[in-house]
Amino acid sequence: MIRVGDVIVSTTRPNLNAVAMVPLDLDDQICSTGFCVLRADHNLDRDYLFAFVQTQEFVQGLSELVRGALYPAVTDNQVKDQLIPLPPLSEQQRIAAILNEQMAAVERARAAAGARLEAAKALPAAYLRTVFNSPLAQKWPRMRLGEICEITARQVDPKVPEFGNLPHINGENIEGGMCRLTYLKTAAENGMVSSKYLFEPDDVLYSKLRPYLRKAVVADFRGVCSADMYPIRVNQQVLDPHFTAWMLVSDEFSKYADEESRRARMPKLNREQLFAWKIPMPSISEQRRLISMVSNRITLVRRTQRALEEELAAINALPAALLRRAFNGDL
Q1: Does residue 148 sit in the same domain as residue 249?
Q2: Which are the contacts of 8, defined by CB distance < 8 A and separation ≥ 6?
Q3: Measuring CA to CA, which residue among 52, 56, 49, 47 is closest to residue 97?
Q4: Could you tell me if 231 and 167 are in contact, meaning their C-beta atoms sit under 8 angstroms apart?
Q5: How many angstroms separate the Cα of 102 from the Cα of each of 40, 96, 109, 268, 331?
Q6: Where in the sequence is the domain holding 325, given as residue range(s)?
Q7: pLDDT tens across 93-138, in order?
Q8: CATH classification of the domain holding 59
Q9: Residue limits of the Type I restriction modification DNA specificity domain (predicted)?
């Protein structure tokens, strides 16, 4: 049975530091045997104990015990054998009180930064709605994608060096809703052995699996892509590849693709469904003007996102630094 104020430590994969203090509403409950239950006596403050089991020293001490083991787990006795600095109770309480206050401030900062980051992530879709859902956009003529696009890419063997040394793209390489590649490796580096599509510069690569993820990008190099991608070649006399990619991650198309793909057991948009969609068709010069505007805004969004991600990373590093200071006697 566990009691309110008990500190529980997961004995499996100790590097993950799955620890908790039992709250009042779980008092007198049963705990899994996968946890070691630590109950502070009259010489040990429970908040101080809880802070200690979150330190890098404690985590590393347990992790060293399972290094090289087939099943990374420690015993209750190994957890209890870890040494804890033990100043007088009043000093423990002082340290714990300061840490609790500091950790609460960190959580407030983390929540605020996380909210700002989520708001920044929503901006691209908002920009696209401004462009593609405007009253003017509703008046653009439309054409079926199949009338102005085609898929002509041939399949090639990535085990052949000519193709294995080319960049390989699948859905995991594309940032959803942003028309941007996150990283690149060659087909050989990815260990590809099954046939791939050979795409060319200016082909629009669209991930047909789970279209709600909104993954499309314009290639600016020759490469190979998985069979789960459509390498779409557009008629550039009337349709800009970048305009096409942004339309394929727009709310309108994503809703259409999601509804169509749900008819299959695996959410997947087939070629007929893709080419049946009617894409808005402003003039080619207007397409390029709009894409230039969207691209500039998206660039600013990416800078904002990177800054917020760095801020969040710095905040996430604070608890370890605060715990290190506290147990080094620097509070």
Answers
A1: yes
A2: 2, 19, 20, 21, 22, 31, 35, 36, 37, 38
A3: 47
A4: no
A5: 22, 10, 11, 48, 11
A6: 92-140+282-331
A7: 999 999 999 999 999 999 999 999 999 988 888 888 888 888 888 8
A8: 3.90.220.20
A9: 28-101, 139-299
